[in-house]
Structure formats: structure tokens, C-alpha cells
Amino acid sequence: MISSGSTLEVSDNSGAKIAQCIQQSGRSWGIGDTITVAIKKAATKGKVAAGSVQKAVITETKSQLQRKDGSVVKFHKNACVLVDKKSGQPLGTRVLGFATHELRARQMLKILSLASRVL
Known about the structure:
By secondary structure, the chain is mostly beta strands. The protein has 2 helices and 9 strands. The protein is 8% helix and 38% strand. The chain has a 5-stranded mixed barrel. The protein is globular. The mean pLDDT is 89.
């Protein structure tokens, strides 16, 4: 689960590399949740600059995800995809990491269509 202050890798080609969750709340977030992040590290040429505040959808977490069929999904890193603040559409044109089927239940179909690997 992701909590306030967690560091995430950005798994799209928007230009951001490392993001930190800054949303102020007592709960933790899982795959498919939209959070507010601060961009800590970014490429010199890209849509997003370091130090900016963006919205992101969590795509991978280190904690286990228990599915209804009994299977367990666990990743080696925490990752997210940056999305537009108003429309919720991804900022990048490719999703480089994994995307899970739990995004389909949250109506994040554009992220699933851009991902090359869907679990």
C-alpha cells in the first residue's frame, strides 16, 4: 500500500522518473487509486518538470494484491502513471511497466490500452 511520503517510479514516457506521494490523509492507497504526487526527478526534455505537482494512478505496489479467484499479485517496486488533473487521461503515450486488470473495474481503460504488459 502507498501512504503519504512514499516514493514511486513513473512508468510512462511523460518525462518524470521519480515521484513522491504528498496527499494528506490517514489512509493508504492501492492499485487503481488516484493520488497527488510531487515530481522529484525528471528528464530535461519532457512534458513534466521536476518540482511540479501532478495527479497519478497507482499501477504497481510492493504489497500483495489478493484477487477474487485466490491468486496473489506482488511487484518489486511501487509505480504510477501520471494523468491529467481534469480529464484523468494519461500524460504519456506509452505505459512502460505492468498494468493489472483491477484498472478495468475503475474505468481506466486508456491506461490498459497503452500498456504493453497486462496482468
